[in-house]
Amino acid sequence: MTRPVSRYESLASWYDQVMTDPDDRSSLATIAYALVARLLGPGDGLVLDVGTGTGLSASTLRRAGYRPVGLDLAIDQLRIAAGRLPVAQADAARLPLADDTVAAAYSTFVASDLDDFPGTVAEVFRVLRPGGRYVAVCLHPCFDGNYAQRQPDGTIVQHPGYRETGYAGPGHFSSSIRGKVGAWHRPLAAQLNIYLAVGFRLAEVAEDGTDPLPNQLALLLTKPAELEPAS
After folding, report:
1. What is the rounded distance in angstroms from the CA atom of residue 91 to the CA atom of residue 226?
2. Which of 30, 74, 121, 204 is the most exposed place for a label (fewest CB within 10 A)?
3. What is the reported pLDDT for 1?
4. List of residues 6+ apart from 32 with CB closer than 8 A
5. Containing domain of residue 81, as a range?
6. Beta carbons within 8 Å of 83's beta carbon, 6+ residues apart
7. What is each CA distance from 216 to 34, 88, 106, 205, in whole angstroms?
8. How far apart are CA 173 and CA 169, in angstroms?
9. Beta strand 216-222 pairing with 128-139
């Protein structure tokens, strides 16, 4: 089996700078991490950050009472993240954890990054304990997806292609990060159905972001405390 390679490999220092730059993506990151903390609520135990990147969310989750642990495929990202939280290298679609062992988990922006996003969602569901919570924050597929074009007055023009799931390479984008690594587009219904198909229950939805129209979508998902009876 060919080992997957992160498109972020070798970009860690640049990515960390972009995500902490007030003139670039730091506001986007700050809002995303605040959404995670708000939807999870106060805690006092371990929380798994699936796709941690350089670990920038760690301080926000610690302030909420959690002990974050980060997983990522890109080893150079983890070298930076290790200064912020405990980390391990892992493919998000093959988590190195036993079934039903994690009380809480979260991810930021992985829906547009990961090739095997359905596999990742299934793995998060598998490792969560019954009653466990998962917060997923992504770029809003309706207002900041691959086919959404922002106008100077803040309005959004949605171009044909929205309904299709697919990856677009860096040349499709003018923004800093997607202009380096490209992005997957997964329409809203497709994303929701991926979560529901593995058994998650949708507990809360939030929209937020740095613009008049929301550029972030956040979901609080729960693993049922008991298995549903067979029909």
Report:
1. 28
2. 204
3. 44
4. 57, 108, 109, 137, 216, 218
5. 12-140+184-222
6. 55
7. 12, 27, 15, 11
8. 8
9. antiparallel
Residues in the chain: 231
Residue 26 lies in a domain: yes
**Domain membership flag for residue 205:** yes
The domain that holds 205 is classified in CATH as 3.40.50.150
Whose tokens are 């490999």? That residue is 9
How many structural domains compose the chain? Answer: 1
Flag whether 5 is in a domain: no
Annotate 59-115 with three-state secondary structure. Answer: HHHHHCCCEEEEEECCHHHHHHHCCCCCEEECCCCCCCCCCCCEEEEEEECHHHCCC
Q: What does the pLDDT look like over 155-206, one tens digit per residue?
A: 999 999 999 999 999 989 888 899 999 999 999 999 999 999 999 999 999 9
- Residue 153 counted as domain residue: no
pLDDT of residue 20: 94
Place of tokens 């309706």: 142
Average pLDDT over residues 30-47: 96
17 membership: H or E segment, kind and range: helix 12-19
Q: Which residues contact 15 (CB under 8 A, 6 or more apart)?
A: 8, 53, 54, 77, 177
